[in-house]
Amino acid sequence: MTADPPEEPTGLDDLLHEPPARRAPERAGPRAYRHPAYYVSLTVVVMLVLGMIAGLAVLAADPPVRRVAGTAAGLDIPALPVPTSSTPVEATPPPVPPPDGYAALAAHPLSTSPAELWEVTCLLPTFDADAQEAFYAAAAVCADDAFGGLFAAAELPVPAVDVVTVQDGEVKSRCGAVAATASVTSCAGTVYMTPAYLRDVEGNGRYPGRYLGVFLREYAEVALLAGYGSTYEEAADESGVDDRLSLQATCLVGIASAAMAGHGSVDANITGEIRDRLSAVDALPDANSWLDKGFSSGRLSACDVWTTG
After folding, report:
1. Are residues 62 and 114 in the same domain?
2. Which spans does this entry mark as compositional bias, Acidic residues (predicted)?
3. Which pLDDT band holds residue 149 (cuts at 50, 70, 90)?
């Protein structure tokens, strides 16, 4: 007996009861790829937001503000930070111009020349307080060598300075009579030394350096007047010009005494006596300072008294 072939479903019921065909499971599409920098950036943004929130909370609790007088209490203006520097910078002071009337003297080579004087051999006789003429004659030779050398180094004419020792009585000068009992003076290119005055009135005793100091200062003043010439004459009416010239002469003595120190007859005792006399008797307040400037520098420009104060 031959089996009948299965019947094809033809009815609706048969169709309804037929098991449905199995579907393959649906697969999700490929996941988008994220670069690692994306996650780093996201983390930074989150941290910044959290930091801003925390900062605003601190500022709300203690705001760095200062109130400005005259404004409403609610208007708070933040205080600007004060700039600081780890290395303070000192402003360079502007150059001090010479006082009125001294500009030409300040510009003169006697004030600006870098000429120097370092060694002068000065030979002096044994000092005799009762007969000083030979002493000043020898001192004049020393001064000629010192100041003459300094002027020559500055390319200036070497001044001619005469010396007169008034032993007794009086002598005539173009500036009037000079008595032996008067103080040392100078006039028209000549130095008038008065031994009796220096010995008896000033009481310089038997210290040759004190007499030499006075002589060198007077000599330097005469040399400066000759060197400046009409430039000084034009400034002669200026206040304090004579005192400044005296200080400049004192400074030049410092140069000369330093050049003479230890050479010839000028020992440490005489050098000290020059300083004692020019710093104490009839001395201007700054005399010792100018004497030091000349002594330590040996340079003509160190004695520029015209551009100070």
Report:
1. no
2. 1-11
3. very high
pLDDT confidence band for 230 (50 / 70 / 90)? very high
Start-to-end Cα distance in the chain: 152
The answer to whether residue 12 sits within a structural domain is: no
Long-range Cβ contact pairs of 21-26 (< 8 A, separation 24 or more): none
Q: Which domain holds residue 146?
A: 103-303
Residue 87 has what DSSP assignment? Answer: S
**pLDDT-above-90 percentage for the chain:** 62
What stretch of H or E contains 172? strand 170-173
DSSP calls for 276-288? HHHHHTT--TTHH
Q: What is the pLDDT of residues 248-289, one digit of tens each?
A: 999 999 999 999 999 999 999 999 999 999 998 888 999 999
Q: Taking a C-beta distance cutoff of 8 angstroms, is the pair 298, 116 a contact?
A: yes
Residues 60-78 have a mean pLDDT of 43
Asked if 48 and 107 sit in the same domain, the reply is no
CA distance 192 to 141: 16
Burial category of 287 from C-beta neighbours within 10 Å (exposed 0-12, middle 13-18, buried 19 and up): buried
Q: How far apart are CA 300 and CA 294, in angstroms?
A: 8
- Evaluate whether residue 88 is within a structural domain: no
pTM above threshold 0.85: no
